Amino acid sequence: xxxxxxxxxxxxxxxxxxxxxxxxxxxxxxxxxxxxxxxxxxxxxxxxxxxxxxxxxxxxxxxxxxxxxxxxxxxxxxxxxxxxxxxxxxxxxxxxxxxxxxxxxxxxxxxxxxxxxxxxxxxxxxxxxxxxxxxxxxxxxxxxxxxxxxxxxxxxxxxxxxxxxxxxxxxxxxxxxxxxxxxxxxxxxxxxxxxxxxxxxxxxxxxxxxxxxxxxxxxxxxxxxxxxxxxxxxxxxxxxxxxxxxxxxxxxxxxxxxxxxxxxxxxxxxxxxxxxxxxxxxxxxxxxxxxxxxxxxxxxxxxxxxxxxxxxxxxxxxxxxxxxxxxxxxxxxxxxxxxxxxxxxxxxxxxxxxxxxxxxxxxxxxxxxxxxxxxxxxxxxxxxxxxxxxxxxxxxxxxxxxxxxxxxxxxxxxxxxxxxxxxxxxxxxxxxxxxxxxxxxxxxxxxxxxxxxxxxxxxxxxxxxx
Length: 466
Ligand SMILES: Nc1ncnc2c1ncn2[C@@H]1O[C@H](COP(=O)(O)OP(=O)(O)OP(=O)(O)O)[C@@H](O)[C@H]1O
Fold this sequence. Notes:
The chain is mostly helical. About 50% of the residues lie in helices and about 10% in strands.
């Protein structure tokens, strides 16, 4: 098994937009494949019955590409093991159902939902695991045929040998032991003919030669069932790593069904791919270095043994930290594009590079850049209460001197400030705050030496005349 080429996979069901929990699973699989110079496979776990799966499939592919989590095998990328959408693999699953039936390892079950529900309740009341009683196990082929002929619907159940254990070494959670007595015979094909999710999932992992399955721990209880299936079919087993789920502030796992914030929404407000990647790679996983890293470095230093088992809590403040880091690290031209049309319309082309560098340290989103662009390049200055107080405290003579210095020396903040300092004997906060307040309308913001030349003498003169 270990001699097979290293391959991980991400196998989402396109039932909604991906959220940070799903993407973290994709990221870990991507990083591990990249680190091992192996393959990162994408498989769509859709079924024909799913609504809108085409739309969501395209959306999740776009999300992955946007984050740079590019798959080397799967839809569009191609590969030897396609098709890569489960809705197109019906004939493959059929073949394996037949194989299991002909070996006597699967049998038709005619028990109705109602009957099964009663049996489950009875078992639970008697403190027994609610596993299938085995009622249809012993049906003779003739009897089964007769019932089919009468048009009775049947599921297909996988036969599980009693009194055994299924064991595997989980790469995150350690040794896992399950008793087959708790599992019981389980449904692998529903009565409408559709295969059970974990059946397709296991068969596909084996046929697509996946060697390591990294997925949310919500799948942990599927694993012994999948191992039993693969063993019965003589198919290779992957290694497994079940990672803690990402939970929201309420402690509940992020989920498409409960409307968790989607990657698409984060992209729309201006979150940057390296911010999301740096944040998620550290969510429940630790690196030695806390520095901002590109995907290559995140991959190089990723370590499965450093994954925590506790639920990973989504923390927006942490994501914001990495967003600011990403803004600081972005190439200037990319940052300008990211700022968007509204900023581009306000900032003169020949000042864009200076503007970008001046505000880079003070923005987290394009909306922040727009605010600074309005302050610097329009006459609509909104002066905050604190700024107005600082200006009042400095008094009109302070500003008369500042205006005079501006006329004499131009938009050179250092010289203007130095002149005011000498002439009015003020320094530190009492010098810089009123100047900043008048010129920007705020007490915090970009470095004045960079921003004043962009504001220009004319606009600065008016602002110092307040
Ligand atoms: N909250 C979460 N935290 C971490 N991983 C998650 C979370 N929710 C789903 N995953 C993982 O994302 C991968 C893709 O899952 P899939 O698209 O089937 O979503 P799902 O399990 O149906 O989740 P959802 O509840 O969001 O629909 C799986 O490995 C799953 O374990």
